[in-house]
Amino acid sequence: MNLPTLTNWRTWEPNPIVVKELRQAVRSWAITGMMLAFLTILFFVTVGFLLGQSFNVNPNQALGRDIFQVFLPILSVVGFFFIPIYVGGRLTAERQEGNVDMLYITTLSPARIIRGKLFCGIYILVLFFSVVAPFMVFTNLLRGIDLPTVFVLLTIAFLLSVLSLQAAIFLSCLPASKGLKILVGVPAGIFMMSLVGMMTAMSVDMMREGIGSRLGTWTFWGPTLSALFIGLLLFGFLHLAAIALISPASANRALPLRAYTTVAWLLTLVVAIGLAVENSSAEPVGIWAGLVTAAMILALVISVSEGDDQSIRIRRTIPTNSLKRAGAFFFYSGSAGGLAWTVLLGLATLLLNIVVFEGGLLESVTGHWTGMTGRHIYHPSDEITVTFSSLFLYALAYSLFGLFIHRRFQRHRAPIFAGLCSVALPALWAIVPNLVLFFVNQLSWDALQERQLGNVFNVFALKDHSFVFDHFFCAVFLVAIGAALNLRWFHRQLLAFQPAARPAVKSPSTFPEQ
After folding, report:
1. What is the pLDDT of residues 322-352, one digit of tens each?
2. Residues 211-256: tens digit of each pLDDT
3. Which DSSP string corresponds to 191-259?
4. Are the C-beta atoms of 304 and 339 separated by less than 8 Å?
5. For the CA atoms of the chain, what is the radius of gyration?
6. Is residue 46 classed exposed, middle or buried when 0-12, 13-18 and 19+ CB atoms within 10 A define those classes?
7. Comparing C-alpha atoms, which of 215, 204, 81, 86 is closest to residue 144?
8. Of 76, 90, 79, 77, which is closest to residue 23 (Cα–Cα)?
9. How many CB atoms lie within 10 A of CB 96?
10. What separation, in Å, do the N-terminal and C-terminal C-alpha atoms of the chain show?
């Protein structure tokens, strides 16, 4: 939506996607029927509880809490499941090739389209939450729950609903067939439904402990702000990823995602170190390193699936300055730049992990911050760095192998074939040797827990954790082979990363005088 300013307020207009979606939502019976069914359920639940209470001799002092515990799961199902499915389903239908809609004929930018879909979903969420809010507040009059708890739980439910809505929009933008989207959407739907149970359990704990007395303490705001920070980072990533998925192939789709991920990496590192210093434990940094390693493994698969060809539109934006061009290489679309950016960020994560767990960084920061030198910091394990390093290096090696197979043997296929090979190779290496052991009657739990070099999953199943160092050296060896196979390709891509020269505009020819 274009925000009005003092200079353009006369020409301001709402996002046309929002107008289109809301007009179709009003004309459709999907939202109207869902709203009527929602109101009917809330009404009969309230009447049922009140009628049941009228037959009891002893008054229930927690009747409001009991009614609230039924209202909140109903609202969560609508906010976490039905509304995201409605918005995501409409976007999926518009993404089909046989449906010529605004996504294919409009001149609106991809960012404006995604924002329009998101604002429409948020408007529907606000509509449903405004309907249920009077019922929720009414439970306070029946005792058993206070108003701060009601408002806090409604706010949490609304924020989780917005996050689920953005996740549904992202899944709808995936460049896959309808069957594959259903295959991906089913576990996503199960996860969204599991959020209903999590929300219910959270409400039980909050109502038992009481929120009103904790609103002015850091024990409430510390975890709340941390969860809000993580949720905002995830929301921003899903939003930018959805915009990138519907952007044309000629656009520089990787630039905003990689820049955002780099900034998020720095921010989460600062938060993790702060939590580690405050709690005198390196566990927050270990959790951060594990999550970042998983994200970098996914980034490797995505990077090798981007392809080598860069459009004229991208090349015209490449800086002419050599230093700026060197920095832009890591953030522009392309498999080579994506691999370089992921490896650089992954190695930085592993080096920081080594410094924290083995270099005594937290002890130094804690002593400088508090003035207490020699303060003991709890470290969960000395092998955690080697484990994360082995996983990342294995993923890098198999990504390089998948890239080589695609370039050498299946060049005519789409670039996503390299990513599929990067996933299939470790799966085959984990399955085939165990199948051989099964057919020779040698497969057992002891065999699965022994060293299986090259098997990524064996890193987690080792009986003797000291064998993880063997996996690390094996992963380094495989990365060296993969780098040697792709060295010439990477050098060519590095040399080809040059700005495209714009065609010279010829001046109009002058006619000689007669």
Report:
1. 899 889 999 998 899 999 999 999 999 988 8
2. 766 777 777 787 888 889 989 999 999 999 999 988 887 888 889 9
3. HHHHHHHHHHHHHHHHHHH-SGGGTTSHHHHHHHHHHHHHHHHHHHHHHHHHHHHHS-TTS-THHHHHH
4. yes
5. 28
6. middle
7. 204
8. 90
9. 12
10. 58
* DSSP reduced 3-state for 374: coil
The answer to whether the CB of 334 falls within 8 A of the CB of 373 is no
pTM greater than 0.90: no
One-letter amino acid for residue 13 of the chain: E
Instruction: Count CA within 13 A, CB hemisphere, residue 258.
Output: 26
Give phi and psi for 316, each to the nearest 5.
Answer: -70, -20
Residue with tokens 């008054």: 59
Structure tokens at 448: 């699965």
Instruction: Tell me the one-letter amino acid at 151.
Output: F
Tell me the three state secondary structure of residue 281: strand
For 193, 285, 308, 353, 355, the CA distances from 279, given in Å and listed in that order, are 33, 11, 46, 18, 18
What are the E-state strand segments in 61-176?
Answer: none
